[in-house]
Amino acid sequence: MAGQRKSYDIKGTSQYSRMQDYSSYQPSALGTFSISEDGDFINCNKAAIPTLLDYKLPLNLDEGYNGTEGKDKARETTFPQWEKGLKWIHGSKEGYGSVSSVDIIASRGILKDIGYTNHNQYNNPWKFEACKFKGKVYLRKVDEEEDENEWCIRNSYWGKKFEEYLIQQETGTKATYRMLKGKIGKKTVLLSAEVDAISSDGKYMEIKTCFANKIGVKVPQAWWQSHLGKVETLYYGLKTRQGMVYDKPTEITMAVALTKYVTKNRANEMIGFTGDVLDWLYGALPDKDETWILEYTGGRQIFLRSTGEKFLPNWYLQFIEGRKEEELVKQVEALTLSHPVN
Q1: Which ranges of 240-340 does DSSP label H, i.e. alpha helix?
Q2: Contact at 8 Å (CB) between 247 and 57?
Q3: Residue ranges of the chain with pLDDT lower than 50?
């Protein structure tokens, strides 16, 4: 029923540090898919993951920013429509076989924001949509235009420009994702995680930019994001206030990031908090096709409220209503899903 409201009370960080050891999260990589430049789903393998390019310093991250085109590029997202993840689940052999033991289906970015709530010094708000259907919780980002100032937009553009300088996407591909499955708290989570690049020796890398005096603030969140996505190396371009990178990017292994910037106690707090919130959410949601808003606005509570609207697209509901597996796979492969299916 629309208007129903529930809340989760945030505990002290020390309580979360005892709930789960960060090292117990060891997700399995199940498969890979890409999004084309036109927004189409491409089921693929590890060969599609971007590789590092040769580049020449200095790098001007502000190049091309002026004008509408540059600002539009800063605002665009590479996150797939959430239906694309569902298509991988039920449109590939690996995906279809992975669902029976899964409790939560989400993107890495959602779990990153939830897990960092207690450590975000700015109390940045977040909001997601949630639904539990047939014993599985689905989480997706709310499709809203963010009210960002000019400086935030410019920095977002610089990050995308840095990636352009450093990585080589496969022709026709906009972004590539890995599907991972692991245990957080008491729940088994299936998540999609964008892969920035893979090194020549096969290590997964997270590509970031940062001001030199902010590295200690930025690395903990990047470590948490990378830990969720089974990434091995953080690759940082240290930028000036004018958007210039003069020095070779800094490589920080996950082990160094943990020891120097995060600490094991803090890492345990982040995964413990995420697990506790997911456990609460799983129990709080009714098992029906209904959209609920999961929201943090600052302070010591997380809120959950019903909109009364449907959550799952009709094609997905039809898909899981008892048809034979071979028929379901053929049905999904026939869909383009460039737009939500009504």
Answers
A1: 254-257, 264-284, 314-319, 325-333
A2: yes
A3: 78-80, 336-342
Q: What is the pLDDT of residue 88?
A: 84
Q: Which pLDDT score is estimated for 79?
A: 45
Any idea which residue has 């190049």 for tokens? 63
On whether the CB atoms of residues 102 and 188 are closer than 8 A, the answer is yes
Mean pLDDT across the chain: 87
Strand ranges for the chain from DSSP E: 5-9, 28-36, 41-44, 51-52, 59-60, 104-107, 126-133, 136-141, 167-168, 173-184, 187-194, 197-198, 204-211, 233-239, 244-245, 250-253, 288-296, 301-306
What stretches of 179-261 show up as alpha helix (H) in DSSP?
Answer: 215-228, 254-257
* pTM, to two decimals: 0.90
Burial class (CB in 10 A: 0-12, 13-18, 19+), 2: exposed
Q: Which pLDDT value is given to residue 340?
A: 35
Give the span between the Cα atoms of 325 and 317, in whole angstroms.
14
Give SS3 for 191: strand
